[in-house]
């Protein structure tokens, strides 16, 4: 036999590398050194050399990864092993080039002989070694350990793994491989030599899972597990919550009903279950699964199978059309690789979630899997091919060909390899032919079949086929096998029949045991699905998520007290059967059993011939109320108990009983049995031995029957019954003792310092468990303590409710209590001051479902007190409510409001005017239902929707409206809105009479007219006036809704103003300017807007007071334009003067000297020249000194300008002393040139010239009819060289007739020249004035 090794280096090169390592490791290597090395050391050095050379070869990557897909790669990996195995099988020759001495050569020769001998011995030893002894499966030297960490922390799982070839390590989370690249930064996988780690960064609760590390090589696979639990900071304060979450991860509690996740699409089926891989071979696997319990309400049409190679995340769908059979052969697998599978169900609505992933399975020969001892080996296995030097042999016929499975979708063939298959591997060709013909057709012309299994698809359903198989190898194709029998394509497995009679029986208060008759003649039965429904609802829910193998199942999670019906159906690979008949309805209730024994027997009182016993209720009452107790007693003589005797034949309901006819001073033991509907339970343990002797102590006996109610996190209520033995005097109070449940006896401490009857405990520590006892007191002292209670934990249980006081719509006051954990036998027990109310006279007790209420008939002070409610057969559900005098008063007030309710109003009835003068009456209620009604009343008469009244009621906003188009005289009166909503009522009224009604009516009419007016051109701002700084009066108004053909007409005193007046309209504003206003401008001004849409008028009265107010405003502008008073020396004396922007003849001014009005004389005069107002003082004297003022009157406060003509100043003296000379020398004057009268014909031009003199140069002003003129094209006014003034009128017309003046002035004086111009028409006489 020859070994075929395909490597890029030979054994000699390997040995050279090995020897060089030895030389480098030992500076002076010798035979002695080689002898000193153990075989294990030689092996390690050699293994290192192999790795170095493999890293330098093209195969280094495949060798490191452990994965190879071709025979050549696997052969190269095998060569590494064979080279190591045969290391010492060949001789070593030392190559020395340098010259050596004979002695050295002899010594080295001897060493070589010794080394050869040693190598030969090692060779003989290792010849006995085989592949399996050198290569071994991976082993965990150190396994990963579980961790519990906080959120946001990091966790690292470590492990150490040995194995050869070097294992491939994969980490899984809940059986899903972890890909660090899928979530960068989340996972970090590190492998260093044999140490492997998985680091999880910033853990959150989703990281709580079971992690698996799998090591795989060609010898097999092994796994180790570790759990990671992530705790939140919230859980630190809630340890019980954390425990629940942790348990859910590790092991769900049995009674919880589990199911698949809801489908993404409503109505889609649930996910398939229990996906497994069967009959795996080199290139195919049969995948099986179980049908889901939930089909979404429509039949499942089939299933899709997906596959995924281990180590990747890409899923591939295996079938194009859904298969109905719950098994499917997956072909086309790569030999040596491992796969996982999942299944999805589909119905007419949509696709389900994928099932859970199957366990990994390797595509390999079953014999290899058995030899390697693993179901999912590492896919990069090493294969050594062996070849014979002889010729190849054509393989024989396959054996035992048969059809192992046939459905309408596929047929699976199975056979055994031929006995004479030669020395190399074989492959197979499958052929088919239709029954009745001999035309064979090869099926797998392109797909190589290496496994003795094959699945055929695309066969015609209903046709019969025969099949045969041929073997082939490199030598050729062998003869075909014997053909199979004719096989008809179709489902061979029938859907099971429906299960038989279904019988439910009681189990607990939340579960029912369901049993049924098995399906008849069911083949390959997978199990049963059970469904439940509340009787009469026809809404079915699955009870189990996975099929049940047996015919009995416990359905958990049912609602206590509800009645359920059940049905069952069977399932196998072919499908799910029809449902069984529905079971009879059963009420969910715990099965009844006899109660457990009572305990804690004590003596409450003892007399000469009787004893009063007390005991505690059994811990389990058997699912039914205890109907009574039976007491037995026996004598104890000399420490030996006697025979038991019945103390009572009839059961006693209380937990205290007097045993009579006892013997004085005798010792007795007692036992108690409890009874319920199921029977009498077993007796309790015998009590302590009690002596029957009369108690003579003065203090009272112990209280008994202690009960704890209303347990909360910091309080509870402790109840007890008074002692049977009162002592010498009556009991006058109690002492309550408390201690922690796990504390020593010495830790008992009193709750109250003084004897009390109080039962309410406070100031408890949350989460702490306590026990209590009570001692009674009378005048003689404090008696014996009662038996302690059972431990009670101070905690408010989830779902704990309190008593709620309620006042219904009818004003009925009630106390309400709700219990969420009610059982079928639970009862509500109401008490007042902790005394049970069996038939209360002042209250009515009602219970419906899990709610109970105590209704007060006629609440009064007699009902004050503490009301409590206790629910039996629960974990202590109870609560209380204190009805105080103050609380009762508040409840009675609310009750009255509910009996006689009022609809609250946000606003009372009000009225407002709308556009067109419409009248709106409205109010708004705070809240009103859809059933609310409104009645509208006017003067005690109902009014309704019609032509005059329009009503609107918006129940969403509570706004109630009534509209009227206008108000007439007949509408004066009272309007009322009357509201009703169930029992609640309200009304609101509005009185409109007298002046209030008239004003509203007037305003309504005005608004209507205004609306009509605004439909056409109209005034936004009516006609008014303003005075400009130039003392021009501007009449203006603002208009809107104008169009091109709209007309605006101005009128004065009823006469239209001509166009040549200044009329303007721009930007919606009409203006009319009046310059130099005078009395002749007084009158009534009117503007009329009109077009085809309508007409609007605005009037302004400028007569009498109106004109006077206008002129006062003009005077005010004139006064404000005046300049400060100045002093001027004139020829006659001194002149005081001021200038205004415009002078009006109507302006009234007053001159004052020393705050007194000046009386004008020949010496003191005043006047106006143009815009100059002056005061002339001729021949001034010292008396004329003082303060002078001119006062302008504007109808209000007026304006005053002042100047001081007084003091010792040189300037004042000069004015008085030299005024005549200065005026004569320098004052302005008209030297001549102007005529007195000028008569000129119309159409001619007039030119006049005069000489002007004065120093400084005078100012020249031309006046016409006492008004200043401005030079323009018609009037040309010139003043040249400061000496010559000219006046020209071009094209004279009749309007130019009038009085003209020239006014010259400087600081020394003013002078004027006047002339008259008279214009005549050509056909008139020149002397007649025009």
UniProtKB/TrEMBL annotation:
<feature type="domain" description="Ig-like">
    <location>
        <begin position="1220"/>
        <end position="1318"/>
    </location>
</feature>
<dbReference type="InterPro" id="IPR013098">
    <property type="entry name" value="Ig_I-set"/>
</dbReference>
<feature type="domain" description="Fibronectin type-III">
    <location>
        <begin position="498"/>
        <end position="591"/>
    </location>
</feature>
<keyword id="KW-0597">Phosphoprotein</keyword>
<keyword id="KW-0963">Cytoplasm</keyword>
<dbReference type="InterPro" id="IPR007110">
    <property type="entry name" value="Ig-like_dom"/>
</dbReference>
<dbReference type="InterPro" id="IPR050964">
    <property type="entry name" value="Striated_Muscle_Regulatory"/>
</dbReference>
<dbReference type="InterPro" id="IPR003598">
    <property type="entry name" value="Ig_sub2"/>
</dbReference>
<dbReference type="InterPro" id="IPR003599">
    <property type="entry name" value="Ig_sub"/>
</dbReference>
<dbReference type="GO" id="GO:0032982">
    <property type="term" value="C:myosin filament"/>
</dbReference>
<dbReference type="GO" id="GO:0045214">
    <property type="term" value="P:sarcomere organization"/>
</dbReference>
<dbReference type="InterPro" id="IPR013783">
    <property type="entry name" value="Ig-like_fold"/>
</dbReference>
<feature type="domain" description="Fibronectin type-III">
    <location>
        <begin position="702"/>
        <end position="799"/>
    </location>
</feature>
<feature type="domain" description="Ig-like">
    <location>
        <begin position="1017"/>
        <end position="1103"/>
    </location>
</feature>
<dbReference type="GO" id="GO:0031430">
    <property type="term" value="C:M band"/>
</dbReference>
<dbReference type="Pfam" id="PF00041">
    <property type="entry name" value="fn3"/>
</dbReference>
<keyword id="KW-0787">Thick filament</keyword>
<feature type="domain" description="Fibronectin type-III">
    <location>
        <begin position="597"/>
        <end position="695"/>
    </location>
</feature>
<dbReference type="GO" id="GO:0005198">
    <property type="term" value="F:structural molecule activity"/>
</dbReference>
<feature type="domain" description="Ig-like">
    <location>
        <begin position="138"/>
        <end position="229"/>
    </location>
</feature>
<dbReference type="InterPro" id="IPR036116">
    <property type="entry name" value="FN3_sf"/>
</dbReference>
<dbReference type="InterPro" id="IPR036179">
    <property type="entry name" value="Ig-like_dom_sf"/>
</dbReference>
<feature type="domain" description="Fibronectin type-III">
    <location>
        <begin position="271"/>
        <end position="366"/>
    </location>
</feature>
<protein>
    <recommendedName>
        <fullName>Myomesin-1</fullName>
    </recommendedName>
</protein>
<keyword id="KW-0514">Muscle protein</keyword>
<feature type="domain" description="Ig-like">
    <location>
        <begin position="798"/>
        <end position="884"/>
    </location>
</feature>
<dbReference type="GO" id="GO:0019900">
    <property type="term" value="F:kinase binding"/>
</dbReference>
<dbReference type="GO" id="GO:0042802">
    <property type="term" value="F:identical protein binding"/>
</dbReference>
<dbReference type="Pfam" id="PF07679">
    <property type="entry name" value="I-set"/>
</dbReference>
<keyword id="KW-0393">Immunoglobulin domain</keyword>
<dbReference type="InterPro" id="IPR003961">
    <property type="entry name" value="FN3_dom"/>
</dbReference>
<feature type="domain" description="Fibronectin type-III">
    <location>
        <begin position="397"/>
        <end position="491"/>
    </location>
</feature>
<keyword id="KW-0677">Repeat</keyword>
